[in-house]
Write a structure and sequence with these properties.
180 residues, alpha+beta, 9-stranded mixed beta sheet, globular
Length: 180
């Protein structure tokens, strides 16, 4: 096939300027790279097969981690298995619910958020609790059942003198409470 004689016809308006052509090529290359990574990840997950139970190892993928998974006593919860969930509920009483969750960080060793949860003070019944600001910490970043996730979460109330305690948490890989 030969090129017709005469002046070159300009590309459509959106492609006419060199910087636009470069941007278009960049977008195509980025889309191809994303598709390649997705296919590679799909092949890896298919090849790994099903595990007999939850397994925990160091993170090996660049995907965004989830907040654990729906499993064990948290199987009927909310927010687990999601990236940056806006609500977390472990499926128990009102103290296990955090609403209006806003993540300040995500993807590092710890993810930190603020939200609203039921605070129950000493010698107070759950029915007497009050909705108050809570700090949420997701931690123990790693893989569980072959998926990158935060394998532990806890929330606490700074205004009541509480602080993050990594020995007391919900294990959201296996679905159990770790009382500390």
């Amino acid at each position: 096939m030969t090129r017709p004689e005469g002046p070159r016809q300009p590309l459509p308006h959106s492609f006419g300027q060199p910087w636009r052509r470069a941007a278009w090529r960049g977008a195509i290359c980025a889309a191809a790279a994303i598709a390649w990574v997705g296919l590679a990840a799909a092949g890896c997950s298919a090849a790994s097969g099903a595990a007999a139970g939850p397994t925990a190892t160091a993170p090996t993928t660049a995907t965004s981690p989830t907040l654990g998974q729906l499993t064990g006593v948290f199987a009927r919860g909310q927010g687990f298995g999601q990236v940056k969930p806006a609500e977390i509920f472990n499926g128990g009483d009102p103290t296990g619910l955090v609403t209006h969750v806003v993540w300040k960080s995500w993807g590092g060793a710890q993810a930190v958020a603020t939200g609203i949860s039921d605070y129950v003070g000493p010698n107070q019944s759950v029915a007497g609790g009050n909705e108050e600001a809570a700090t949420v910490v997701a931690f123990s970043l790693g893989t569980c059942d072959g998926k990158l996730m935060y394998r532990a979460v806890e929330w606490y109330f700074l205004q009541h003198g509480q602080a993050f305690d990594p020995s007391h948490y919900e294990d959201i890989c296996t679905g159990i409470y770790v009382p500390g």
